[in-house]
């Protein structure tokens, strides 16, 4: 079974696996409360999958600390 989007593509957007997982989980929790997505017509039916699609689409990013 192939997961979409792939971890390799996701890590091109967000370097740290820990940050990636944390961001996706927080965004999934937020979507479960609001039901709103940042992208139109997501492929996934799961909130975490939609969050990962948002990362690939660069709608969801991490602010770098200075």
TrEMBL record:
InterPro entries: DNA-dir_RNA_pol_omega, Pol_omega/Rpo6/RPB6, RPB6/omega-like_sf. Its EC number is 2.7.7.6. It is an enzyme of class 2 (transferase). SUPFAM superfamilies: RPB6/omega subunit-like. One of its GO terms (cellular component) is DNA-directed RNA polymerase complex. It holds the Pfam family RNA_pol_Rpb6. One of its GO terms (molecular function) is DNA-directed RNA polymerase activity. Keywords: DNA-directed RNA polymerase, Nucleotidyltransferase, Transcription, Transferase. The keyword Amino-acid biosynthesis does not apply. It catalyses: RNA(n) + a ribonucleoside 5'-triphosphate = RNA(n+1) + diphosphate. Promotes RNA polymerase assembly. Latches the N- and C-terminal regions of the beta' subunit thereby facilitating its interaction with the beta and alpha subunits. The RNAP catalytic core consists of 2 alpha, 1 beta, 1 beta' and 1 omega subunit. When a sigma factor is associated with the core the holoenzyme is formed, which can initiate transcription. Belongs to the RNA polymerase subunit omega family. This is DNA-directed RNA polymerase subunit omega. It comes from Virgibacillus natechei. The gene is rpoZ.
């Amino acid at each position: 079974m192939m997961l979409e989007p792939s971890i390799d593509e996701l890590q091109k957007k967000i370097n740290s696996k820990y940050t990636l997982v944390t961001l996706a989980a927080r965004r999934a929790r937020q979507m479960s409360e609001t039901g709103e997505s940042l992208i139109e017509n997501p492929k996934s039916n799961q909130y975490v999958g939609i969050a990962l699609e948002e990362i690939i689409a660069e709608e969801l990013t991490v602010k770098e600390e200075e």
